[in-house]
Design goal:
single chain; 164 residues; mainly alpha; Arc Repressor Mutant, subunit A; two-stranded antiparallel ribbon; 2 strands
Length: 164
Amino acid sequence: MPNDESLRPFEYYTIFTRRVMSALDQWFDMLSGSVGLSNSELKVLAFLHAKPSNDTAQWTATQLGISKALVSKVVEQLCTKGYLVQVQDRDDRRCYHLIVQDAAKPLLAGINEQFIQSWEIISRGISDEEFKQYLNVMSKIIRNIAEGFGFDMPGISIDTDDKQ
């Protein structure tokens, strides 16, 4: 049985990760409410806007860590609001591409501005170098978990200028 000291890094990591995620979820709730979208709608729309080449429900679900069923529900809501359209893939009729519509552009511009202002608050006192170090450490932890326990974690990578 591990002693209390050997569990300390796990405890710190777990508590820290949960607190960061909880704070970010609260921030997304605040942001989404200010633009009249649900938290999930905001995340899906912002992701598709930021990564237009990765435009399928499956890819979006994988990258955001939410179920494909939830993404499908959210996509339907965003299509109803006129912010997205689904276009069937020419080669795979089961696959649909999610295209952000011009109607969403003013909303996305406002969201982007709020992201920039919020990032200034979130990153206060953190240098670019410190943030890169954080990303490198998190990337290594993710890679170690995936490789060490044989988990399939497709598309998980954090790009920084530093070689890992």
